[in-house]
Amino acid sequence: MEDDNQHSDSDWQQEVGDVQPLKNKKIISPDALIKTHTAGKSSKTNNTTQLNLEYVDAKNYPELALNDSSFVDGNLAKKLRTGKIALDATLDLHGYYQEPAIKKTIEFIRNSYINDWRCVCIVTGKGKDKQGNYGALYSNLPNWLNLPEVRPFILMFCHALPKDGGQGAVYVLLRRKR
Predict the structure, then answer these.
(1) Does the model's pTM come out above 0.85?
(2) What domains can you pick out in the chain, each with its CATH number?
């Protein structure tokens, strides 16, 4: 029986031996989010950026719906929907309950903006229950992206392509820092 397991392991190693990781994909574990700015910036700059994030007036930003492209030009919206904008990072919320997922999403969007990332992906999964209802994370993500803590940083969001999570994931296009 041990020989079968060893044989299976060697077969597996032979099959996956030449597999290479995807290039230019940053997968961010929610627990490993970047909490500080990039090295080399002065602490005064960091404090100023942090201060600006604390006092953004979200009242000037109307609520966005999924696929709402009213704040971007048509070409940019099409590029986002078709996955032609490179992803800077991905947040995977599989296995999280709603409250921690909200906090991780807010932190992820704010840190993405601070890092000047343009396009990020948030994966919730569909999470259907026995009655066919979608899960809380999937259903509530559009509401979370409209929270006053993050709405000022978001231009548009839409479902991802199947290779990035499909209907269970969302591409988020962020504003550029000015």
Answers:
(1) no
(2) 23-174 (3.30.1370.110)
